[in-house]
Predict the 3D structure of the following.
Amino acid sequence: MEVILKAAGVKKYYGKGEALVKALDDVDLEIERGKFTAIVGTSGSGKSTLLNMLGGLDTPSEGSIRIGNTELARLNSEQTTVFRRKQIGFIFQNYNLVPVLSVWENIIFPIALDGRKPDKTFIMQVVKLLGLEKKLDSLPNNLSGGQQQRVAIARALASKPSIILADEPTGNLDTKTSDDVIGLLKMTSREFHQTIVMITHNPEIASMADRIIRIEDGKIVSQ
């Protein structure tokens, strides 16, 4: 299988001396294209820090991260921003939708920022799969939490990124809606051969992924 994401010797340290915190401590990780991977760990284990590193939202103290053929460390700030928009889809716990934009406008927003034309046929495929056809003109505050998270999933998929990073995507949802959202993530991963890396503290949610990686005290303890 093709490796789409590789982290090698990644460290993230804060502070010095006795105040030194090793948020990530020599992490090696390979993610295969088209797989749905869950990274699990308790609060403070380093999973959110790792996701931020993988998404280019933060830089390691040491080590390297490669997505496809691109080494993130070789990009300057502006190049990193553009790369993120084109190659990485983010799904956040708090949805991060723009309240004054309709569902459709939210979905195509990252593509519009790049001045690119959205692939409307593909996006409507995603919209139908997620059951959002009748909500395209709605504003986010007229949607339920589950519907807003579906919009966030559609937005992440719309630009056909190399990889989707999901940060506790079910954190604000009830159990049934959580199961639905994870089921939809699995389905979109399968339908569009999309690579998804999700962090969660919930073992039941993680068990729905193809692969589980466990992190404790900034180190990967099982894969």
